[in-house]
Design goal:
Layout (H helix, E strand, L loop, with lengths): L1 H6 L8 H8 L3 E5 L4 E3 L7 E15 L5 E7 L18 E14 H10 L1 H24 L6 H15 L1 E4 L2 E4 L5 H8 L3 H13 L4 E3 L2 E4 L2 H9 L3
Helix pairs in contact: 3-4, 5-7, 5-8, 6-7
Length: 227
């Protein structure tokens, strides 16, 4: 019960008996780094809830290029609850191994039918994910310079995955140039070229696959300022 009620917003305020019953039906699953949890087109009869680890939700274009839509971590749900599951339109890669809990969609919706708070929280989950998607679309727009898109992404990651560092705030994820390109939705070569001025100016530091942001306010000013 503690995992559902304390780590997942969707269960906040729900009937304790409902949460307790659902907790008894959870299936614990360990995840391994650089493996696929599910792929586009899978029909998922369970929802995946994250206790630990980091997960990249991504799409693959017709040319084979990957585009990471979200990175999700502890306390988040990887796939939407669906009353009648359809083939999922996104894939999930484990970028840091951990633990997820699975709960059958049918069991969840039986609980939703009896608990209006849980039903409203589920709607809130959909709305939150849609708002995040809208922001992603804005940041992927060709109207925003690529160096600013990179700066904005690194600033956001330093907010979501902060780790103390002597030189500022480190991003607690292993981010290669290839993975950064997938996050941005641009070619590796373009990202490498546009990352260079951020490194040279000291707005961002790169050390062995780790990005460090010395001053988050300066980085924020950089991508928000008018050209």
């Amino acid at each position: 019960m503690d995992f559902l009620s304390q780590r997942l917003n969707i269960f906040n305020g729900a009937d304790p008996k409902t949460v307790d019953n659902l907790s008894k039906k959870l299936v614990r699953e360990k995840t391994e780094t650089n493996t696929l949890l599910f792929t586009e087109g899978d029909v998922l009869d369970s929802i995946y809830m994250v206790e630990s680890g980091q997960y990249a939700m991504f799409k693959v274009s017709s040319s084979g290029d990957k585009r990471v839509i979200f990175t999700l971590g502890p306390g988040e749900i990887l796939n939407y609850p669906e009353r009648r599951p359809y083939p999922i339109s996104i894939a999930c890669r484990v970028i840091r191994g951990g633990v997820v809990y699975k709960l059958e969609q049918k069991v969840l919706f039986e609980a939703i039918e009896k608990d209006p708070v849980l039903a409203l929280n589920t709607i809130d989950l959909y709305n939150l994910r849609m708002r995040r998607l809208y922001r992603q679309l804005k940041n992927s727009s060709g109207f925003v310079r690529l160096d600013k898109r990179i700066a904005a992404k690194l600033w956001k990651l330093s907010k979501d995955y902060p780790a103390p560092h002597a030189q500022g705030v480190a991003i607690d994820l292993k981010i290669t140039t290839t993975f950064l390109a997938e996050l941005i939705g641009a070619s590796r070569e373009s990202v490498s070229r546009n990352l260079k001025p951020l490194l040279e100016s000291g707005l961002v530091i790169q050390e062995r696959g780790t990005f460090i942001v010395p001053d988050r306010s300066q980085l924020e000013f950089y991508f928000k300022k008018d050209d």
